[in-house]
Amino acid sequence: MNTWLLIVTLLVLSTIGYQMGRRRALSLVDHPKQLNSLPGYYGSWILMWGLLPAILVLGLWTASESAIIDKLVVADLPTEVRQLAPERQNLFLNDAKNLASGNIVSSEVDATLESAADHITSLKRTSATARTLLALLLCIGGVALGYFLISDRLRAMHRVEATAKVILGIGSTIAIFTTVGIVLSLLFEAIRFFRMVPVTEFLFGLEWSPQTALRADQVGSSGSFGAVPLFTGTMLISAIAMVVAVPIGLLSAIYMSEYASPRLRTVAKPMLEILAGIPTVVYGFFAALTVAPVIRSWGQGLGLDVASESALAAGGVMGIMIIPFVSSISDDVISAVPQGLREASIGLGATQSETIRRVIFPAALPGIVGGILLAVSRAIGETMIVVMAAGLAANLTANPLQAVTTVTTQIVTLLIGDQEFDSAKTLAAFALGLVLFLVTLVLNVIALHVVRKYREQYE
Amino acid sequence: MSTVSSESTLQDRPLDSALDPALNPPIDDPLLEIEGLSLWYGDAQALRNISMKIPKNQITAYIGPSGCGKSTLLRCINRLNDLIPIVRTEGDIRFEGESILDPSFDTNLLRKRVGMVFQKSNPFPKTIYENVVYGLRLQGISQKSVLDEVVEKSLKGAALWDEVKDRLQERALGLSGGQQQRLCIARAIAVEPEVILYDEPCSALDPISTNKIEELMLELKKDYTQVIVTHNMQQASRISDLTAFMYLGDLIEYGKTDELFIRPQKEQTEAYITGRFG
After folding, report:
1. In a domain, A159, yes or no
2. A interface toward B at CB cutoff 8 Å?
3. ipTM of this model?
4. pLDDT digits over B83-127, tens only?
């Protein structure tokens, strides 16, 4: 039976079980109030018994099926195949699988291969049948077991809630473990990289040129992995972005929260936040095709030497993208400053701008700083704009009119195209990713801490 | 002046309020004169044609049920209602003869002369010292000796000096509720206003702190004209010289506190102060 059809069947069976549970609970007593829990909980109790064990077994079975079939097939292969090198054996097995499912195979189809394919086909069929039967049996058995366990004393609500809690816990555990898994994979691959390239060279080297020879007999550079130009490029572009985003974002936040009329605010604020909803790739070609040429022609008008892909264009456009991050958070924290402080200051004869400068802004400052830090980590991690507009040349420069490259851009270019997965060039991406992750993590932790500390102040 | 309220809901209210003795206690030395003041929040009228004189160096109390307009009236005196865009006023308030509701009147200057203490104590998230000198810094005074002197004088005036003199550089938000409220009074008197407005200053305080604030108000009488809005009729009777009773935006009765509480002239006033209001 098809997996989806099987799952639908299980759901239907359990739903029937749900109704049976309700009826059974109601039939046990004269009045629903005599039941320990609401009738629906008895239904959910059966639903749980019918669905959870079957789904669990189905999941485990599906996950381990192919590995077990592989083992069985290999064990059954003729000795000459089993004595092949592991890669060859794998190739053979893949061919057999492809043959079994009707795909193209890479070698001649001979009798051994065909018998292996037949073996796979039959094993798969058996497995599917057994899986279906087992799941259905578990479901029906679970429903029956739940049905007979129901009594008017059964604390169905308690059990159902406890199970729900476990399921929720599993959900969050999966999320956490995924994160941990990503970090660990970054870490291990980065460690592999650092075996080839010393950490000190990576962190302090001034030259980035990751092109390595693909084959041993090829003539080519050996590659150098000094990441400093990438870090400075990232910092330069982020700094330009913040120079654009922080003043504009802050000024608009102050205007929106302190001066704008409610009507203007309801129109202008969502419009400002639309900026955050524009896809970054759109910003990217806006920067590359519109802004960069304009900056270049202005620069040339002034007699300056401007690269066609300048840090200024990428950073400026990125700054525009980040405005809503700064303005939205700042607006929230400024609005959260108690009205009483405004009245106290106005009541002492301060003008509105004096009140903003002397009371509201200092009171909101920690929150604003938190917002800016979040925006910085967004700028550092931003990829699409810089890939399209900042260029690939790893120049070590602080001149915003030159092309620079960033950590994210280099990760993208390192991993585009066919790659040898254990070369230093590919693994460098993991090392860069790890550094990027650590930097944004630290920034986020500081920002959240600052924002939270501020929130506590008035509660 | 004479005004006629066509919407008068009260049968015992005489048409000519300027001659009604229940609204016109003898006042020798008025500092503030409110004349025919009406106020609207959008379409809702919150004050109806209010006229009264507030005497110098005395405490005037406003009492009345919630929503009767007493806080609104108080906030007209320093024009804090200007912060609310939908507010519209008619009539006049004269402060030493000057018309303060005139749009061209300098509100910042007015608020330096009319200090305010709020229901919820609202010290700035700064040090105790900086809270007190806030108004002076606004005036551009930054000479440390002057500021130090004002801090000591104001905190002593607000009966807070002994409690905080060793921790002037600590955060004001670390003080207790009663101390914060006295700090707000110190902040208000630091700029030496002529009038201090209190909007239910003790409603969030315990009886001991309330007692301290009341004693302080009596102490401040010699230098300041004080106007207080309160829900607490005992408080009004304990500290005020004059009391005004308001109901649904109307001034019902205004008179000397001891007379108003002992022999109210209006039936509604009597019903309210004896607690059988309905």
Report:
1. no
2. 261, 338, 340-351, 354, 358-359, 362-363, 457
3. 0.86
4. 888 899 999 999 988 899 988 889 888 999 999 999 988 999 889
